[in-house]
């Protein structure tokens, strides 16, 4: 007999997630000043393969995310590094409670935390909450075809590529985006969790 799956319970409830290399807290309007300073680092909003707000658009972007949370479509987080500094933003999005699925996306980080343990830690925390806390059966990641760094980072997590959505979106510069879709299944999560924990436990250069 097949056991029927019940919908995700409280997928929009705000949570704090903490680890040695990163912590996630609910995004609020009070984070605007820190976010402006973070996006100004390296002028990262100029990247064309991802949607990062310019400093003057940070408040509007935060309100957009909070509006989607109020509408029951997103759970946005602030990401902080081990020292408590604002490092970026990420979200649970495209939340499908009935089918126990969601996407981790709308993620950006200040350049100085890239190639550190922060992203691995943040994804370990988010995936743990999605699978172990909420009971998801699948978690998706999506990125621009030409965002090769993002594609490599997602693959390093242990996600499998599902396919490419051709002419999926119109980007901010007016070009068409092919979207690469990855996912991790609940049956794969124990192995992925062990892989991520091994990465986090490795000795690091100081």
Automatic annotation (TrEMBL):
Coiled coil: none annotated. Pfam families: Acetyltransf_3 (PF13302). InterPro entries: Acyl_CoA_acyltransferase, GNAT_dom. GO terms for molecular function: acyltransferase activity, transferring groups other than amino-acyl groups. The keyword Secreted does not apply. Residues 24-160 form the N-acetyltransferase domain. Signal peptide: none annotated. Keywords: Transferase. This is GNAT family N-acetyltransferase. It comes from Xylophilus rhododendri.
